Amino acid sequence: PELAAVSMETAILNVLLFLIIAVAGFGILAIFFMIVVEKTRDIGILKSLGATGVAVWFLLIDIVGGQPLFTPSALGAVLAGDFSPGSSEVHLPWVIGYTAFHFAAFLAAGLILSFVAHRAEQEPSILAVFLILFVVFELGFYGLTAILAETRLPGALAWYRVAGGNLVAAVLMGSYMWKGHRALPAEFADALGARE
Which pTM was predicted? Predict the structure, then answer.
């Protein structure tokens, strides 16, 4: 009975991860076709802000906990498919693998955010859609974190670590876009129906 439950949980996780990767991959490919050269600066800065902010957040939490680089090591193990309760030792290959994935994920996030900000100049309603999708993505991400927290190193995948990292990235990236695109506040108000 327990083995069947573990097999079922593994199958569900594999399906969820496949769906997330497939949707993300399709989104990235679609956005690559729509990006123009002038957005390159925004994308690089957004990627750097988000990825570095989250990396510093995880490092600070790990230092306070007495285990520098523990979180990226645990997340790297999960990315490598190791869901077993492992040791609390830091494994450099997992840290490197997670870091590469982390920066690629923020490259995709920078592409999406830059596309949305530039597209909002022609169609402000895209900001409302983006806000709804962002909230749905965050809730789904926290759900996935809760599932993974049960399978591997619960302390490393605690919801508050993920929420704090996501908040840091959202504030840094959002602030940059808000300041860099002066029309964005008015477009956002228009998208939410605050202006006539």
Answer: 0.68
